[in-house]
Amino acid sequence: MATFHQISSQNLECPICLTLFNQPKLLSCSHTFCKDCLERVFQTTSFQNIVTCPVCRKGINVPSGDVDKLQTNIPLSSLVDEVKTKSPTCSVCDTEENPLAVSYCQDCEDYMCTSCEKDHSNWKRVSNHAVVTMKDMVSGKIPLKTRRKCKTHPNKYKEYFCHGCQEYVCFRCGMLDHYNHGLVEASIQEEKVMTDTKDLKKRTSSKKATAEKYLESIQSQRKKLTDLMRKLNDDIDETYNECMKLLSERQKALKCQVGRWFQNFEKELQVMAEESLQTITQINAFDGLIGNGQKVPLEQDAILAHDTLCKNLESILGRDEPNDQSPRGVTERAQRISFRKHVKVDDLCLGNMEGHPWDLKADVEPLTPNRSAIEFMTAVPDGRIAIGQDAGKGISLYSSSGEFQETVLYDVKTRRIAFLSDGRCVV
Length: 427
Known about the structure:
Elements: H1 2-8, E1 24-26, E2 32-34, H2 35-43, E3 50-52, E4 59-61, E5 71-72, H3 74-85, E6 103-105, E7 110-112, H4 114-122, E8 131-133, H5 134-139, E9 160-162, E10 167-169, H6 171-177, E11 183-185, H7 186-240, H8 248-290, H9 301-317, H10 325-335, E12 338-341, E13 351-354, E14 374-379, E15 385-389, E16 395-398, E17 404-408, E18 418-419, E19 425-426
Antiparallel strand pairs: 1-2, 1-5, 3-4, 6-7, 6-8, 9-10, 9-11, 12-13, 14-15, 15-16, 16-17, 18-19
Helix pairs in contact: 2-8, 7-8, 7-9, 7-10, 8-9, 8-10
């Protein structure tokens, strides 16, 4: 019976979740944690493929960023399986039959069969004792809450906490080896840990709410950007329908320009959103991890792990609050953009983009003849556009996309021009 109790209470609990190890993964620093716990810690790191050990705080490489590829602590896993499958017998009965235990009293530290459990519950002096079922205890669903005994002085409980060594000790060890390290009663230390944890969780909730509100603001500005871009594109399309098919390249150029600008806006908001989402992910991960410090008195590695997690969370909570003006500023710059419709016979242009957000010159220049008086306009067989102007001004040639190329026949006053199949023209 003592063997089962000894095994079940020996270093088989994960320092983070404080329950029996589940898929224990061994780090190169020799510390072991549950696979799920390590994955949650890995979410809080800012370095790719590196996880910080919560106990010794060393940076450990994670192959391909996959915690599952870390080495499994096979001996420890086998020991946990043995504890889960081994059935203890009643430690109260004096009979030789040794019936199987169905429950465990955490105050008496006794395993009890059905009959002894019934007697125990009827005894008023122990009616307030914490009794758990063997199924819950072995599965790790309900961790043991009793204070452990000192290994040096087996008849003494660890009722004091040494701040210098960060461990619980019995009274005799405290007086002999830790008297000048800053001893406090275990109950005082546990109350401080619980109070600090509650405060961190409260600040965590506030920080998370702020980050979520900031993310909502970003999404709102994104919607405004989308609406603005849609309106601009609609204006461009509406104006384009009034223009000649010859100006289709011009339309594409304008929309491309709008797309590039709004792509830059979107990139700015995307960076802000990713930073906010990362903060929320880290807060959620820490929120669950540090809460385990409220379950039971922390011990050894669990103390160091809890301290590491709390300090990491303190670092996140100490960051500057995001400024709502940043995403709004992106939208305000976008709102300065407008599209000026411009469809005239003497100015072959859909329109111009105005209010450039970065004070850049428009990269789509209007197609404009040398003078406003146009005698005629016709298509050249090679895809260009020929425009006849006032007397003595010649014929201006433009590319299919509306770019001016050259002026010919300066000395000829033209009224019409027609192109023959062999490339010649009649003026």
